[in-house]
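Instructor's aside before we start: the two examples that follow are unrelated to each other. I chose them only because their records fit on one page, so don't look for a connection. First example below.
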Amino acid sequence: MNQTQMLRSVSRTFALSIEQLPPILRDAISVSYLLLRVSDCLEDHETLPPERKSDLLRLWASVLDASAPVTQLTDQITDLDGSDPEVYVAQHAARVLQMLRELPQAIQDSIVARVAKTSRGMARWQDHGPFVADEGEMDDYMHEVAGRVGYLLTDIFAWYSPVIRARHDELMPLSRQYGLALQTVNVLRGMRKDYERGWVFVPRTFYERFGLTRDSLFDPNHIDAAMQVVTLLADKADQHLRHGIAYVSAFPRHQHRIRLACMWPLFFAVRTLAVSRDNVDVLRTEAKIGRDQVRSIIRQTTLFGWSNRWLERYYDHLARPPGRSAPPAAPPAVLVPTSR
């Protein structure tokens, strides 16, 4: 597989965002994403025990730091099923590293540093174990797996654009919130799947407030109490997502493709959150948005996403749960540019 094929094999939605970027940004973020998918594979693979996961993640970080050869990693994962696209990328980490070396040196260093720190953070959480005590621990986990990814995106955009570079310090805390926003929605929509593989990322303080345990949270006999926990998670996700709007809005309007690359995953998450609220499917299986909704978000934001005022209105439009006065097909368009 080439770079584009690898990217599309492991992500449909992120590929949409990445592929519409200017070529050098597309290459840098594609490579970054593939490197992170190696980390994700080592963290999430269902057959690997936690001790092996943490060892492999630390080894991968050492490979990135050039203190270990990549073959030392790939030789240790030949037993995994390469028909899984994520495993395929991990088993071909040498090819991804070659793609990295084809990028300008200035951006290589940032990519390596951020992905290595993320991998070591994932290893630390494998050592920690499959439970989260409170919201602070949840945020710590999400920072390691997603907040640092927000930092990496900002590094790459700042390297590309002098205007964004001048706003780097302003953007960094917002980029962490952007990463936490996407990850909180991932935690919410993946609750059942995570539980089935032994992990519960919902803070213990959230479900114990309603007299639940990590097991009874998914017991149909306790559905009313469990849905109150879902509401707590949804409210937390909404807080992070609204910071994500501030992150997108901080990019200059003339960098429309960069804005789109950030707003598409954000708005997909906003709508996913809306369909997850009051939806017992998040406890039984998973709540998803349809392809028609994805296409609608892409179309609307491409036309009107240059306006920060419109973005705020569109957020409210998408955040409305389906059963609560469902919004019309498209919100009113802002046709006159504003200074916001």
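Example two begins here.
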Amino acid sequence: MEPLFPMDQAGALKELAFDLGQKSAQLGGALHPITRQGVVELLRKMNSYYSNLIEGHNTHPVDIERALQKDYSADPAKRALQIESQAHIEVQVLMEQRLQEDETLKVCSPEFLCWLHAEFYARMPEEFRRVKTRSGGEDWVKPGQLRECEVEVGRHVAPAFTSLPRFMQRFAQCYEPTGLEPALRLLGAAAAHHRLAWIHPFLDGNGRVTRLFTHAYLIRLRAAGHGLWMMSRGLARHREDYLAALASADLPRQGDLDGRGNLSDRGLTHFCRFFLTTALDQVEFMTRLLDLDAMQERILAFADLLVFRTAAPKETRHLLRDVFLRGEVTRGEAGRLLQMPERTARRHVGQLIADGVLVSNGPAAPVRLGFPASYVGHYFPQLYPAGVELGRW
């Protein structure tokens, strides 16, 4: 799978990686930590939506949210998609916890990658664990086990299954982020994303495992701001370009001016440029969304809509804005912001919690801002595709 990195590491790619690191570090710096965590939880659901969408599996964000509450559709096909989305989110949470608890965990190791696949497929519905074989039959995906047959993906013929242990070991040696020079680490995230997909270590699920791995890679890099942006949204929005960029990096070397490895240096350069440009686009998109002034304007507009459409008091706008800026407020403070007697305030706060506008850990616990799928388009326009992000009104 040589070259492991594009030959031109000091030119435009290095500038792209530097710009990405700088802008990511500035993202969300003004958010209260509690509000920030709420946004991160929302983006996990979004990441599941887009990563599965790349594979052709379209599950509405509202249905994903219902799955997390164990509210599954009676339609078997829809239920299977809900479980798949739930599995993606659960594994991402579990992965983030492991990385936080174990600073020595090697994200490029075969053990970690097989663990990711095992956790994901152990949660998958049975119908998604059956795949068609090259001979036209069916085979079962074994969670966490390297494939035991040859595969072709489009025009790409993946490495022989007997060679997978050697490829996986080489991958771990070359791409582990803690072993790379700082200037190469973000470029390493791009190159490793393709090379893992190229190896195609599992019978199925390689795309989603690769995108989860990339999330883990960026966490291990301690890329400041990451978590407030996710690669899958950008990759899904440019799905055809993504697949074409992957395919270009699959190509063998195209003559003497195309590097010295087995694979195309130009192809890998093209993929890395696409990856870094896409990541930068997502950082800039989320930077615009999370601008404090713009966020407050959208929160106030949504509160005014609540007042117009429901029995919410007009002072709801003050409550929601304060909760956003301060992270959380006590029930007593919520009553004062609503400017009404305690019992009446309690009733209105309870209704806002029931609607998901506010969330709380208990009847007497402080309240914080909720980001339910049914309202997300009001707070974060264009986070989801047109027609998907629409709120209740």
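The radius of gyration is 23 Å.
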